[in-house]
Amino acid sequence: MGPRETAPEHRHSQNAFRFVVEGEGVWTVVNGDPVRMSRGDLLLTPGWHFHGHHNDTDHPMAWIDGLDIPFCQQNDVGFFEFGSDRVTDYATPRFSRSERLWAHPGLRPLSGLRDTVSSPIGAYRWECTDRALSEQLLLEEEGQPATVEPGHAAVRFVNPTTGGDVMSTIRCEFHRLREGTKTPDRQEVGSSVFQIFEGRGSVILDGKAHTLEKGDLFVVPSWVAWSLEAESEFDLFRFSDAPIIERLDFARTFIGGREA
Fold first, then answer.
1. For residue range 108-150, what is the model confidence (pLDDT) as tens digits?
2. Positive or negative CA dihedral for 68, 18, 99, 102?
3. Is the whole-model pTM more than 0.70?
4. Separation CA 98–CA 163 (nearest Å)
5. CB neighbours of residue 225 within 10 Å
């Protein structure tokens, strides 16, 4: 998004998220709730939620948009509607109303006991993600079972009303590999997209190594064998169509040549 730019409000059937790669000073307004955007934050725009953005600075911001467009297009379920020509609220609060109500670990407001299809949290903040990953690696150093495998910390962003994925069609995760870590080969039904948030390393896709550094994106197609190697501490954001695959009972994973 360019300096001082505004994206008019609109909504669509497709579920979407924004993962901020660079920049500060942009707010996205989701169903009238202004949500601050900062580097490393994950922000949700579930299907049929009105949303628009405004940049209050003289500097650009870059983010990744992830949507379930292929699934919606294939099944002909897409709808689109324009909203306001601007945004409905130009306030710039540090925390959105949804965060103030919902973003308290382990606590659920009694005013919100009904389960929701998508997470009611507007933004998952980088400070919390970073701290969770760091603590996993520190616990591993202390001999505690905190990581998914040696040197590999990971978290999944969840809907606090169900404990499931943030949206019904998209799974979002963040992975951190300690310097020198190599993961075993994996094969999974379903496709994933990764963004290198920090660090250097490589991905081995179907036996071929690809060098990676901050800002790179790569895709793992369904059932292609893949693994990661970290040259430095290696931070990766990941999103996938896993919720669809699991709900349809097509999920299958092999790790190191064996079914997991």
1. 999 999 999 999 999 999 999 999 999 999 999 999 999 999 9
2. positive
3. yes
4. 17
5. 15
